[in-house]
Write the structure tokens for this entry.
Amino acid sequence: MTSPSYPLTLDLAGRRVVVVGSGPVAARRAGGLLEAGAAVDLIAPFVCEDLAGLASAGRVSWQDRDYVAGDLLQPEPAWLVHTATGDPLVDAQVAREADAARIWCVRADAATYVS
């Protein structure tokens, strides 16, 4: 049995949002977050062309490496995280850490998952 969902509209203006992932899904998420006024931190060892463009234009802050424990809390706690790595183990790790820190988390590999 699945839980019923509850739609939300979030005010992200100026809030730190972390995107973990490097492909087209992460690029779509980052673009939408930027349109909403979020301060986007991207964590990925490599990125697709769209994300590279956002990073080179200074629109996102790119950490050119794999996700590591504690990334959601440094340099300040994230308000929201989107994980779209394509690796279920990494996405699960990010979601667990977000849940423990009481940070909203959306997983691309589990569209119904929000912690």
